[in-house]
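Supplementary Methods. Inverse-folding protocol.

Structures were first reduced to a discrete structure-token string of length 88. This string, shown here, constituted the complete conditioning input.
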């Protein structure tokens, strides 16, 4: 029986992180447990000045390109402001 790994979500863009490549990296090269590699590399946000509104728009555009249903896009956009990065 295959062990079901707990799916993590990026605390910046809400992207599901299922495999090691999906995770960002800390300054010491270790895996970030909270952020994906699109948002976080070498201990820094890749877009340090992005606002929560821009992040929501960016994710919406990416998800539309991936043909993700609108309902799921709206659900994800609603989650983004609740994520750790935007609460701090």
């Amino acid at each position: 029986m295959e062990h079901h790994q707990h799916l993590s979500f990026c605390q910046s863009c809400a992207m599901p992180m299922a495999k090691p490549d999906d995770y960002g990296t800390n300054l010491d090269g270790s895996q970030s447990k909270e952020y994906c590699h699109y948002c976080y590399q070498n201990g820094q946000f890749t877009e340090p000045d992005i606002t929560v509104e821009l992040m929501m728009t960016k994710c919406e555009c990416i998800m539309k390109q991936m043909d993700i249903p609108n309902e799921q896009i709206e659900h994800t956009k609603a989650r983004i402001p609740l994520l750790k990065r935007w609460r701090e």
